[in-house]
Amino acid sequence: MYTLIKQEGRARRGTFTTPHGTIQMPAFMNVGTAAAIKGGVSSLDLKELRCQVELCNTYHLHLRPGDDVVRALGGLHGFMNWEGPILTDSGGFQVFSLSSLRKIREEGVEFRSHLDGKRIFMGPEESMKIQSNLGSTIAMAFDECIENPAEYDYTKRSTERTARWLRRCRQELDRLNALEGTLNPRQMLFGINQGSTYDDLRIEHMKVIREIPCEGYAIGGLAVGESAGEMYHVIEQVEPFMPKDRPRYLMGVGTPANILESVRRGVDLFDCVMPSRNARHGHVFTWEGIRNLNNEKYKLDPLPLDESCQCPCCRGFSRAYLRHLLRAGEMLGMRLLVMHNLYFYNSLLEQIRRALDEGRYEEYCRRWLPVLSTRI
Q: What residues does substrate bind to (predicted)?
């Protein structure tokens, strides 16, 4: 259940109660694609890094180790030793990325595994069954993620099919939740809005899917090549038609600036691989701006990454040492930097929530937007 506590303009401060705990919103989900954060960070570490929600990938876990294996070991919560909420995506984006290996029809999508070329079929029912086996808190509806730019007529047909798929997802998840022995009989479903960058298709699709009862609704198909301005425009068009009493999730976004701007436009929930991926290449987010540890100037720098940060990395190690670890190819360097970036993102969302609580979110945005976008 979503509870709106306070609103400043379109920006929302709320809570979302789930079977695995209450999420303080706005929130950022830490991406553990294959039930692990890339860079050697465990579920136990995430508690210290102030993570509220972890996101796992249906497609990858179905291929390896297999959702039946995860189910046999107690679902994702038992498998990865994480007690808090978990959201699983539906596999739709991965199918989108396999454009040369897929065939889409009304029943679902036939594609080949990127691991071994094995032929796989996934539709709404298959996606719901896999996610039920994983036992996640929130299951994402199976959809088609449309590329940007996309041809109008194809986009229209695709959004209509995605709406039909959502109805099938709702029906199938209700059936699975009612079965004896289901791992999480209170598993929630989020529908996904699509429509490329066409305002009329986005709005019409949102009007259709909001009539299908879901515990939350996402805006999908963004952060796939369009400009930030185009993305913000789509959010502005869709948001007025999203249910006020449900969480709004912007999928795959983004930079700290993207998050600040999207919260301003009414978004509650985010995920992105950027903090962990960038960290593994030496790019870290700080309260002074974006720092590239590969630069020579850090070779003899004894200061922590961010003097105002209290993460395990900043409390214990210097920029010079971290740069050395990266240059030497030591896994410890990647692990520490990933921990820092995740702590930074989770701390950023804490500060956003505090600013909303205190009625000073616009002031907060004006203060931090230029800083967090600066490359040091």
A: 89-93, 143, 194, 221
> Rounded distance, CA 63 to CA 89, Å?
14
Which residues are known to be catalytic? Answer: 89, 271
Give φ, ψ of 342 to 5 degrees: -65, -40
285 appears as a binding residue in the annotation? no
Rounded to an integer, what distance in angstroms lies between the CA atom of residue 183 and that of residue 199? 39
Q: How confident is the model at residue 305 (pLDDT cuts 50, 70, 90)?
A: very high
The widest CA-to-CA distance across the chain, in whole angstroms, is 61
What's the CATH number for 2-272? 3.20.20.105
Half-sphere exposure of 265 (CA within 13 A, CB side): 20
Distance CA 144, CA 102 (A): 12
CB 294 within 8 A of CB 375: no
Q: Was 314 annotated as part of a binding site?
A: yes
Name the average pLDDT for the chain: 95
Angle of CA points 38, 44, 46, to nearest 5° = 60
Domain layout of the chain by residue ranges: 2-272, 279-372
C-alpha dist (Å) from residue 261 to 77, 252, 264: 32, 15, 5
Distance between the two ends of the chain, CA-based, in angstroms?
Answer: 42
CA-CA distances (angstroms) from residue 316 to 24, 302, 303?
29, 11, 10
Alpha helices in the chain (DSSP H): 43-48, 58-63, 67-72, 75-80, 92-97, 124-134, 152-177, 199-209, 228-238, 256-264, 274-280, 312-316, 319-327, 331-357, 361-372
266 labeled binding residue: no
| Residue 91 annotated as part of some ligand binding site | yes
pLDDT digits (tens, 9 = 90+) for 319-362: 999 999 999 999 999 999 999 999 999 999 999 999 999 999 99
CB count in 10 Å sphere of residue 245: 9
93 known member of a binding site: yes
- The string of DSSP codes covering 196-216 is TT-HHHHHHHHHHHTTS--SE
311 annotated ligand-binding residue: yes
